[in-house]
Design goal:
The chain is an alpha+beta fold. The chain has 5 domains: 2-37; 43-381, Beta-galactosidase, Chain A, domain 5; 398-472, Immunoglobulin-like; 492-568, Serine Threonine Protein Phosphatase 5, Tetratricopeptide repeat; 600-688, Serine Threonine Protein Phosphatase 5, Tetratricopeptide repeat. 27% of the residues lie in helices and 32% in strands. It is built from 14 helices and 36 strands. The chain is globular. 45% of the residues are buried.
């Protein structure tokens, strides 16, 4: 707004009729007005802070392999990670590195040493910790590898309560031209070799936290993944979970049982919830999880009616469908876990948002070379009373009682001369110009005329230029029939069709089932039909992951023989691609190249096949051909960082260091924690 002040000053000067003192007063007024609208600079700094910590003993030096353990409904594997299960009662003061982000509305602190979690998130307008604030590090044996702490925000990928949530992660800091600042955190997960990063960003003049998430499959195999963000919040008898108004049902882990939402009508998780409002923390006597079922809205959150404050999550529900809460309950078990996990910070509740997943376990596939990118937004709310809808710009709540509508808005930025309106059909019931910001919520009550029902109403907030920031119109509940629970897989011999055998085995793989193995289902399909394409391909991939190359090759060739009978080119070249993977692993590069070239005829497998071919040509020192092949990969997927790093290396080998440097810089922009790209940048600069 300094520019605006300068414009006002120029106008005064051009008139030539004001005295020097009048001109100075005008400048001061302009600067004062400008300062009210100008967004404060985002602050970013690192510091060491001492936090009381209960000591965890050294990890077991002996590796532990999978022995049938179930964790969060999926297969729990330790190796190659060490197990951290030696907890002690010894409390020490320990120094941790914290990275702070702060603007005029919120203050955050990220802790790279303990999983990169957000450790502090405070609404500066009311001093409210909108994520659970721990004042002690007190691990319990809850994590996949043992030690786990509550509080703040935990990142869970590719499994829930990921293995390294109590371990250090990589991080770096970024300042952007728009004034926003970011803490990037991430790692390469050891068990599946998947890379993930999260950019935690604050913008000037905005109260939301932007979380930019990316997951990279740098392996030659497809992997099932999920990505749940797990914030804790302070809970008490006045805390309420805010699922969207279109949610009719909630569901358990693994979807074995459903409950009506928000008023229960059945027994769920062993508790009689008939007539109970499930949205309140106080109404749950024991540990329980609820996943919102099939919401088509983009938000959810939680609200402390005592503090008149809470937090909302906003994300595209097509990419981020998961909305869940978990609590330990307010009974004896909950009290026990509160004492186990904290000294004085009280009970908490987890509000979880799931990307590419709506349940735990619930996974989606990440193909070889694929990169998934998406964003989350979290922001504090106050004086809202609940939430009917939310966007990145604003949140709205509408309640109707005794022919009185309570309307409330929060905004994530400063909007002057915005317009709040309430209509019943085309009839305006309320309209007002308002100034609204994260520090200035808006609340009003409107008397409704006779005959107006709640579903007649539409509440909206518009910017001064007429752009709709948020709106809500109630709809009648559908009273849908309760969804059917998931059925356990039948034994292979009881399944009639090969298609069902294949899909059952694939589901077992996809969900990392601890109770069933996929191979018997594929094997039964092959027993019935030795040339079954899908079952042979699936078996070949399983055997390849086990390094049983001969068996893998046998099944993949059987699939290819069936698919290419009568000299036809198959529509799907998956089996050709994985045959190439198997042959390359055995050093049979000529045969592998032929298989990869066949796979590249199919669009679905062009990128991973061409990348594999480019790597083989590098081994042969055919760098010109390798560059041509890797360019095909990048043309299909410009965010494939493994291919981009290979291109930088090939360009260096061809003596084109300047291009290699430029390309490495572009890769670092996609993944600031890509150490391969950072290395290529240094090598290219040295070569120049």
């Amino acid at each position: 707004m300094i520019a605006g002040a300068m414009t006002m000053t120029v106008c005064c000067f051009q008139k030539g009729s004001e005295s020097r003192s009048t001109l100075l007063r005008a400048i001061l007024v302009a600067l004062t007005i400008g300062s009210q609208f100008a967004a404060a600079e985002v602050q970013l700094w690192e510091t060491n802070e001492v936090i009381p910590t209960y000591v965890v003993g050294p990890p077991d030096p002996n590796p532990r392999f999978y022995s049938g353990r179930t964790y969060q409904g999926a297969r729990a594997t330790f190796y190659p990670y060490p197990v951290l299960d030696k907890l002690t009662d010894e409390r020490q003061n320990k120094s941790y590195r914290l990275v702070y982000l702060e603007n005029e509305y919120v203050q955050l602190a990220v802790m790279p040493e303990l999983g990169g979690r957000i450790f502090i998130a405070k609404d500066k307008s009311n001093d409210y910790d909108f994520f659970y604030r721990q004042h002690v590090i007190k691990p319990a044996l809850i994590g996949m590898l043992g030690a786990w702490i509550s509080g703040g925000v935990e990142w869970n990928v590719p499994h829930h309560h990921r293995a390294t949530s109590f371990m250090p992660v990589d991080y770096t800091l970024e300042t952007r031209p728009d004034g926003s600042k970011t803490v990037w955190i991430g790692e390469t997960e050891w068990r599946h070799r998947l890379k993930w990063i999260i950019g935690v960003t604050l913008y000037p003049g905005r109260s939301y936290i932007e979380m930019s998430a990316r997951i990279f499959n740098r392996t030659p195999y497809a992997h099932p993944i999920l990505f749940w963000i797990n914030p804790g919040v302070h809970a008490n008898e006045k805390y309420q979970v805010l699922f969207p108004p279109d949610v009719e049902f909630a569901v358990q882990h693994g979807k074995p049982e459903f409950a009506h939402w928000p008023i229960g009508a059945e027994t769920y998780a062993g508790v009689d919830y008939r007539g109970v409002d499930l949205s309140w923390w106080k109404n749950h006597p024991s540990p329980v999880s609820f996943f919102a079922w099939d919401s088509q809205m983009d938000f959810f959150g939680g609200y402390d009616h005592g503090r008149q404050a809470g937090v909302l999550h906003y994300a595209d529900h097509h990419q981020v469908p998961g909305k869940k809460f978990f609590e330990w309950g307010n009974g004896p078990e909950g009290e026990m876990w509160t004492k186990v996990l904290t000294d004085n910070d009280g009970p908490y509740l987890e509000l979880m948002a799931g990307a590419w997943s709506d349940n735990q376990p619930d996974y989606s596939w990440l193909q070889p070379g694929e990169v998934k990118t998406w964003r989350h937004y979290w922001y504090p709310i106050r004086q809202l009373g609940g939430a009917s809808n939310a966007t990145i710009d604003a949140a709205v709540n509408l309640t109707v009682s005794n022919r009185t509508a309570r309307i409330a808005f929060n905004a994530t930025g400063q909007f002057r001369n915005a317009r709040a309106s309430l209509h019943a059909g085309k009839t305006g019931l309320f309209e007002r110009a308002i100034n609204i910001s994260p520090r200035e919520p808006f609340v009003a009550e409107v008397q409704l005329p006779e005959g107006v029902t709640e579903t007649d109403l539409r509440l909206a907030l518009l910017n001064s230029d007429g752009r709709e920031l948020v709106a809500y119109q109630p709809v009648a509940r559908k009273d849908s029939p309760m969804p059917k629970p998931v059925a356990r897989p039948r034994p292979p011999g009881e399944i009639q069709s090969n298609e069902e055998l294949y899909l059952t085995g694939l589901r077992i793989e996809q969900l990392y089932s601890p109770s069933f193995e996929p191979a018997p289902y594929y094997e039964e399909a092959v027993r019935r039909d030795a040339g079954d394409i899908r079952a042979n391909t699936a078996l070949g991939i399983l055997r390849a992951k086990e390094w049983r190359w001969a068996d893998a090759e046998k099944h993949l060739r059987a699939a290819i023989d069936r698919a290419s009978a009568n000299y036809i080119r198959p529509k799907d070249s998956e089996a050709d691609y994985y045959l190439g993977v198997v042959l390359r692993a055995q050093g049979r590069f000529d045969e592998a190249s032929a298989a990869f070239h066949r796979a590249a005829w199919g669009q679905a497998w062009q990128s991973p096949a061409n990348l594999a071919l480019a790597q083989i040509e590098c081994l042969r020192r055919n760098f010109g051909l390798s560059l041509e092949l890797v360019n095909r990969v990048i043309a299909a997927s410009s965010v494939n960082t493994k291919a981009r790093n290979l291109k930088s290396a090939v360009l260096r080998r061809l003596g084109r260091a300047e291009e290699a440097e430029e390309h490495a810089v572009g890769t670092i922009a996609l993944d600031p924690l890509d150490f391969g790209a950072l290395n290529e940048l240094a090598l290219a600069q040295r070569q120049r």
